[in-house]
Amino acid sequence: MCGPRDDGFEGEAADLEVGIWVRGADYLSGWRDAREAAAELGDALSLVGVEAAGVRLRAASGADGSGVVRLELSAAAAREVAMLARVTAARLGRAG
Questions:
Q1: In this structure, is residue 31 part of a structural domain?
Q2: pLDDT tens digit string along 5-52?
């Protein structure tokens, strides 16, 4: 499992072959930004009690070099995150 504090390289080799590399794009800066964002998201999910075992966060770079965070959840974690989002939306008056 690759969590928010891991180096983010598990399975990354396959991602390198997926996109087209653009000359001059700063992929490393985008990846670093995504890595920080993934750590922030992982910390926030932990704070609200989402079980870390059901969460996988991975930092990557988009085709333009921008940071991308890939989030993979177990079914149980997805239901928990959905419930937390609904509760938050209700508190903010955004429930539909």
A1: yes
A2: 454 444 444 455 456 677 777 889 999 999 999 999 999 999 999 999
Q: Is the dihedral of CA 70, 27, 17, 20 positive or negative?
A: positive
Do the domain assignments include residue 33?
A: yes
Domain that holds residue 68: 12-91
DSSP secondary structure code for residue 15 in this structure: H
Total tally of structural domains belonging to the chain: 1
Binned at pLDDT 50, 70 and 90, residue 54 comes out as very high
Cα–Cα dist 73/68, whole Å: 16
3-state helix, strand, coil in the chain (%, to 5): 50, 15, 40
Two structure tokens written together for 66: 């921008």
**Domain assignment present for 47:** yes
